[in-house]
Amino acid sequence: MPRPEMYQGERRPSASYKSADPSNRPSPSDPYRHNGRLAPPLLNSNQISRSWSAESSNSTLHTNMNPRTADAQLQRPATQFENVSAAWGQPRTSHVSGEGASRRNPRPWEGSAFTVGNHVDVSADDLDSGYGGSMHGHGNAKQPVTPARRSDEVDKRQQLEWAKDRWGMDSETSFETASNAEQIGSGVLADQVSLAASGLDKLVQFHASASSEFDDWVNVVPEEARNILDKHEIQRQSNIYELVKSERNFVIGMQIFLYIFRDGLLHANPPVISNRDRLDLLVDEVFFNAQEILSIHLELRDRLYERQRDQHPIIQTVADIYLRWLLEHKEPYTRFQEHLPKALNCHKTELRQNEAYRKFFNDIPKILADLCEVGMNDSYSSRLEDSQKPSLDFLARQINKQEFDSFLHGFNTRFTRLELQLTTMAKHTVKDHPDVDGDSAPIPLIVSSLKQVLSIASYELQSLQKRVDFENFCRTLQFRKGEIIVLDWYDDHRQLFIAGPLSRRQRRDVEWHGWSDLYVGLLDNYFVVTKQTISGGREQCNVVSRPIPLDYLRIAKPFNGPPETRRQEGCIIRDKLLGDTIQMYPFTVYHAADPADRRYTFYAESDSNRRRWLSTIEEAKLIRETYQKENKYFAMSVLSGRRFNSRTALVPSEIADKLEFLGQVNAVAPFAYDGEHYLMYSTSFGIYLGLRHQPTGIQKVMRFTDVNNLVALQSFGKVLVLANESLYAYPFQSLVRVWRREADMSELGISGERVSRYRDGDVQFFRAGMCEGKMLIGYVTKSLLQVHLHVLQAVEEPSKTSNPDRHRLFSRLRSPSKDSYSSLFPQYGQTLSLPRDATDIAMLNKRIVVMCQSQVFIVDPRDPAMKVYPIPDFMVQPSVEYGSSEAISNLKDRCYRSKSLGMVLSRSKELMVVYADFGCYVTKYGAPARQSAFVRWETRATSVAFRWPYALLFSPNYIEIRNVETGGLVQVVQEQDIRLLYSGPPYKGPILAAMRGEDDAQGKTDSVVEILETVPIEVVQGQTDADALWREWDL
After folding, report:
1. What is the pLDDT of residue 94?
2. Which residue has the higher pLDDT, 69 or 719?
3. CA-to-CA distance for 656 and 649, rounded, in angstroms?
4. How far is CA 857 from the centre of its chain?
5. CA–CA separation, 34 vs 9, rounded Å?
6. I need a labelling partner for 329 at 20 to 30 A (CA). Which of 151, 240, 859, 919 fits?
7. What pLDDT score does 340 carry?
8. Confidence of residue 332 (pLDDT cuts 50, 70, 90)
9. Do residues 332 and 293 lie in contact, with contact meaning Cβ atoms separated by under 8 Å?
10. What would the pLDDT profile of 732-742 be if each residue is shown by its tens digit?
11. What is the C-alpha separation between 312 and 642, in angstroms, rounded?
């Protein structure tokens, strides 16, 4: 190899190059650019080459200098070991010729052959390294003027004369005769210059990856240098060399990742993906910010190369370089680590679905041909920011049959390997070395920072990987048509805990071996059972059973049942002869609300797999319960304490004689009077009154028994009571006076009045609400052949006279006759006939809705001639909005088999009709919406309350809270013997319910609870409460 020339010209100032980073981040400076192009380093013999941590050119970088500061000062006198180390690794001070030059006294070992080597320049034209293109400029660019090349003999003679003139040494002194650091430094002779030059040649070839021969430190460093070091320092120098080599290899891997695979995908002919937008999207997802990371590592690699050239053959430290890199460039790695699961998922998905994409990675020559065809191998290409400009052929030779996934994972494994390398290097470093000594030592700081980054990245990667697995699983799900199942995919908290194959026993006529292979997924909110199939060349999971919410999922005992035998497929005859079977391990889960019909026994292929499923289900349920507990949409507050008890066999006789058993609560009515809040309770033993949060003060105020309907009209100061199949009204004042013991119950008989007429018949039920801005009371009577709806309007009571006796007389006189309505509750509109299966009524904004057994009707008592039409109206033609004829017919059958409970506003143009088993959507004209789809409840509801946008479905053991707009399940409350007592207006006011409380020696408690909203109810901006109440029915 030709001898590298000495460049004696002045060093040019550093120039910055533009990074290929797509984010246009600030690019690092490049000290090797001349005339706007990248060129090799030209080192000046009169000026020292410095690394990041070097000080100014008129001082010496000391071994004990803090490596992270460029202006560090001497900390203590150099030890003998440091002097020896400095002899081989420290950069020289500037040599300024001439008299009176201002500089310190030189150290004896400065100017050694290995130090002189810092100023030797090796031209890239002298190497065959596999890197294409000249580094001294290209094309018509003006070439830098350099001195004419001289012979090797002239260079050698000049260096020997210079060393002898400076140090006064001859060429006969050798390293073997040196006894200390001063002798070593002063014994550097002219014949060692060639060794230094040879070491630099090997180092340059190592930087260029020209040969694997120089990938080990011992093959690059002269034997004389190794002989003066102990085994620990030799190992440390090897560790530093290995660090630089791993950085070099990582950069090459990044260049392969981008310049072979990324550019190959973009310029493939024919295209791997015909749709250019989809191709660009795939490239953006898979390669993300890899170009930015490559720019960072090119700068890091060049700094390491520069440090090697400055301090070859013995490197004092590279920890300062890595510390600065880690402190300045964490964010790009964090972003890529967070994106890595999504990048891997996009790559693997495309591999499964695109044959051309699979073949692309196995045909490297085709990739190179396509890239060369579009000029991507041109050395002028702006895509290559590397000063050495590796050719595509060189990069292709470095692939070494690596899987594409390994390049993606390389971003994470790089940090792990770096931590291991630095830890190993610290073990071989002397204790008082500044790399490891002191609180500000760089290696411990780097290692601790790397561990922290890796720990956070590991947790985030697991979480992100679960999110990607969740999205992949949900993307393949195929539900049965007609049913709306909301898994709440877009919630950031969704994740997939476990998914995998399980088996179930089936009837023999389903599959010949009597087993069904399923694919089961456990989400953080649902347990989903599917069967994998191939449709259109793509995998999909057909949901074979309705997903079970984790709130209802239970595990049946025993947890470790004995295994059962399964015959392998195609082994019927062989099984009989050889007994070729496998063991299957069962476990059972079921739906808590329907344990008989929704019970599933699954079989795992091993006992460890069964235990894994069971433990994961328990973990998912615990996380779900904890999350739901801390994020309730509705919370409950007990109001009645243990006041309403029933006697049971557990209550001893001596205790029963001292207790008052009030029985079970049938109805509740809240009202406010005289600044106090009261609750009126109805039980089988009478009607009781008490303050809202003082259960001990509950007292009996009326003797009516088995009253199932109470309504308080707050604005009119009245309580409506349905007793003995008649409707009565009582004022708040009289009830409170009786409760305070200021009057006896006979006063209620005087102040109260009958609201329903005698001739109307027996009152079945009644409801009160606002309609057309008026308080209306509607009650339904039933005779032998007909059912009628009577609507009354509540009016203000005339001002009272000052004479109470006269007022009592007036009260008796104003009592209505059997054939007339009360003056305070006149009739509103006309009496309407209803279907005989009418079960409930509700007040809309301008109409009244009547719930029947299977349908809902809209009526107007002021317009009895108005055509009454059912809701939903199935007399529609199939369309995109209404659905197919099959879907309409299916929904119609479901409605006829169920019981209607009410209606609630869903969207501005939709309403939800609530049935006992499901809910469906209708337009403002009553026609089916959303293609006649429906939402099934997990339990059969007995009543419903609305707090927009939520519907609270009450069943004996559960309160199921769903979002009305989506149908999604948001909360489940599990109790016993739950009953809705009071729901108030549809959008405001308290919701009161009763449920079973404690059951002990004091009796079985019936607790009255208030269901409180814990989240604000969303109201459309600009829409008043009055408009929100059924404005769609203003026909």
Report:
1. 38
2. 719
3. 10
4. 45
5. 14
6. 240
7. 85
8. confident
9. yes
10. 999 999 999 99
11. 87
Contact 319, 242 (CB under 8 A): no
Closest CA to 43 of 101, 115, 106, 132: 115
Burial of 942 (0-12, 13-18, 19+ CB in 10 A): middle
CA distance 109 to 141: 42
> Residue 920: pLDDT above 90?
yes
Eight-state DSSP code of residue 883: B
- What is the residue-averaged pLDDT of the chain? 77
Alpha carbon distance, N-terminus to C-terminus of the chain? 98
Mean pLDDT over residues 923-943, rounded? 93
Residues 40-64 as b or e (16 or more Cβ within 10 Å = b): bbbbbbeebbbbbbbbeeebbbbbb
Number of residues written out for the chain = 1035
Q: Is the pLDDT of residue 132 over 80?
A: no
Choose among 66, 83, 314, 316: nearest CA to 181.
83
Q: What is the per-residue DSSP string for 460-474?
A: HHHHHHHHHHHHHHH
**715-731 pLDDT per residue, tens:** 899 999 999 889 999 99
The residue assigned the tokens 């898994």 is 487
Cα torsion 487, 492, 498, 501 to 10°: value is 40
User: Whose CA is closest to 513, among 429, 571, 444?
Assistant: 571
Do strands 726-731 and 753-754 pair parallel, antiparallel, or not at all (unpaired)? antiparallel
Closest CA to 972 of 940, 943, 947, 938: 938
Sequence-distant (6+) residues with CB within 8 A of 537 are 353
Residues facing residue 586 across a β-bridge: 603
With the C-alpha atoms ordered 226, 229, 232, 238, is the resulting torsion angle positive or negative?
A: negative
Is 15 in contact with 41 (CB distance < 8 Å)?
Answer: no
134-163 mean pLDDT: 47
Sign of CA dihedral 351, 355, 356, 360: positive
Contacts of residue 280, Cβ cutoff 8 Å, sequence gap at least 6: none
Q: Show Cβ contacts of residue 98 under 8 Å, excluding neighbours closer than 6 positions.
A: none
Q: Which of 79-93, 161-175, 398-412, 805-819 has the highest mean pLDDT?
A: 398-412
